[in-house]
Amino acid sequence: MSFIVRRLVFYIVAAWVALTVNFFIPRAMPGNAVQAIMAKFPSLQPSAYKALEAMLGVGHPGSIWSQYGSYLDDVFHFNFGTDVTQYPAPVSTLLAETIPWTLVLVGSATVIAFVVGTGLGIVAGWRHGGRLDRVLPGLMFLQAIPYFFFALILLELFAAKLHVFPLGQGYAEGLVPGWHWDFIGSAIYHSLLPALTIVLTSIAGWMLQMRNVMITTVGEDYVIAAQAKGLHNRRVIFTYAARNAILPQLQGFALALGFVVSGALIMEIVFSYPGIGLLLLTAVTSSDYPLMQAIFLVITFAVLIANMVVDVIIVLSDPRARAREAS
Amino acid sequence: MTAVLPITADAAALPIQDARPGRWRRMPPKAKVGAVLLVVFILAGIIGPLVAPYDPSFQNPSPALSLRAPYGAHLLGTTQSGQDVLSQLLVGIRLTLELAFIVGVVATALSVIVGVTSAFLGGVWDEVLSLLSNVFLVIPALPLLIVLLGSLQTRGQTATIVVLSALGWPWGARVIRAQTLAIRNRDFIAAARETGEKTWRIISFEIVPNEVSLIAASFVNTVLYAIGASVALAFIGVANLNAWSLGTMLYWAQSQQALELGAWWWFVPPGLAVAFIGAGLVLLNTGIDELGNPRLRDATSASRIAGHWLPPADPTPVLAEVSQHRGKLAGFLHSFSRSSLLDETERAGHR
């Protein structure tokens, strides 16, 4: 079995664990969740009661195993039940409306931060003790700031005080979402500040990690040998040192993805950005369990898929692994 | 951390020499800054609630005190309902630090137990435990925390501590397991085993004291995680909103539109407090790293070759001293982990 296939199996196991945890959480909690929801939303029709019971497993229709079976079946068909706050709307429609926003914003900002941070880390590690290396303590401070607080500060400065950027939302009011230039321009304009927040707060982490690996790599004999051969500095940095330092960096990237995505979700709330993070907030404030659970699953699956992609990149960028994959 | 460990006259326990004078001077400057920052906030957490000028929940009905910018009587201004921000901050620092400290202790203890057991049992059990921690590492923690705490009817401090600790161990367990694997093949462990020491004695008197710096680093990391997660959870309202913590302060500031009202003194102090505590922890951890890995230290001894700084090369590159003999089942389980790619290619390279 090749490495990629085995990793795929691992991610399927991880997904199954997430699904199972998600299934048992409402069943393990004390109190009657359905009655709590019904009390909170007097507008719900009695027909919703049955649906909620089935979803949260409170009324115990059938054995726990048959519930589990039908739950897995529902998830496979992207059927996450109906939403409680916006009652007849299925949860999957709400998700479909918000996922693209988050995917574009968080995805592109994370990739930009990773690429720029790794590049700066290469330079800082190569010129160890140099000018770039000396700003590191400041960057560590930037790294320790919670995403959402940094977002608040940027909003205060650039939106409330200087009026350079809009105060949140995904696009200007009155625009109809669609593939026309007005809307796309407005959406890009509104996403600049959130994207800047993600890039600025996460760039320091990538830079630090790459710098540390780079310092260790630069001390290796083969790098010194390359210099002794009189190779051009750029060639030594990129094809000798950075090429080898990037593997641990990629592994770190895969491990940190969950943290980055979670931080970005909370940040969306500050910007009232119409993504999945804001949806999560509405789900939490209205104790909308089905929506909360669906969002948890969607985020988990997204992180698992991203991890899988990183694994493929690791295999592609490591010649030893490529050779093993081919044999 | 050292206070927790039973220190005997045992030679193996000697690496703990924190009491030696001059230790502070030899610490990397980053670690010093971090330690000073942390001490300031810990003191604020201990003394703060005693010297807080007002009751943090007291709502002053006077309209002049609604959203008042900082001035003499209210050094950090007031909230919309006339509460004193400074008092909230002082009480909030204590609660946030308390929670993070307890989570740090519990989760680090869990990761030591899992990491050491995993390395010592070896074979299938090791792989099962590693698989479990890998699964929990790859599942994003914050959404899971939200679902877990969100579905509780009552959200108290205890629930948050339990859930944060239950999800906070895999990072530490990974590192400690790797270190234990490296240590357990050393000669002094073999010697201890030959003299007939029991396994639990070897673990608690030979292995764990040698991992103190690693455990300390993992504790600092866990505290950092606990602060980040608890503040984020409180910020979106998944916490006991009647208690004052840095997170709930930010929650109330956000939900009562402090930003739109221009009341920067309401959300900047708690946010900066979180940022400074976090920076202190990160700096302290980098300092611990640099103590263990001299190459990461500032390049005072670096030489200048071909126009750029070159740090001194390590004549003996550190190789993993782990030779793993896995059974069939254990090897099968191991092949699903990401690290299998590295080990096996390494082995192929040595052939």
Mean pLDDT of chain B: 76
Number of helices of chain B: 14
| Helix/strand order of chain B, N-terminal first | HHHHHHHHHHHHEEHH
Principal-axis shape of chain B equals: elongated
Indicate the proportion of strand residues of chain A.
under 5%
Per DSSP, what share of the residues of chain B sits in E-state strands of 2 or more residues? under 5%
Spatial extent as radius of gyration of chain A = 24 Å
Describe this protein's structure.
Chain A is an all-alpha fold. Chain A is 77% helix and 0% strand. Chain A is built from 14 helices and no strands. Chain A has helices spanning 3-28, 33-40, 46-56, 64-76, 91-126, 131-134, 136-144, 147-161, 181-218, 221-228, 233-270, 276-285, 289-317, 319-326. Chain B has 351 residues and is mostly helical. Chain B has a two-stranded antiparallel ribbon. In chain B, a hairpin with a 2-residue loop joins β1 (303-305) and β2 (308-310). Chain B is elongated, with a radius of gyration of 24 Å. Classes of the chains: A mainly alpha (327), B mainly alpha (351). Chains A and B meet through α1, α7, α8, α9 and α10 of A and α4, α5, α10, α12 and β2 of B.
SSE topology sketch:
The complex is a heterodimer of chains A (327) and B (351).
Chain A: H1 3-28, H2 33-40, H3 46-56, H4 64-76, H5 91-126, H6 131-134, H7 136-144, H8 147-161, H9 181-218, H10 221-228, H11 233-270, H12 276-285, H13 289-317, H14 319-326
Chain B: H1 23-26, H2 29-51, H3 85-121, H4 123-138, H5 141-150, H6 157-167, H7 170-183, H8 187-194, H9 199-210, H10 212-235, H11 246-255, H12 264-292, E1 303-305, E2 308-310, H13 328-334, H14 339-350
Antiparallel strand pairs in B: 1-2
Helix pairs in contact in B: 2-3, 2-12, 3-4, 3-6, 3-7, 3-10, 3-11, 3-12, 4-7, 4-13, 5-6, 7-10, 8-9, 10-11, 10-12, 11-12
Question: Top keywords for this entry?
Answer:
heterodimer; A: 327 residues; mainly alpha; 14 helices; globular; B: 351 residues; two-stranded antiparallel ribbon; 62% helix; elongated; disordered N terminus
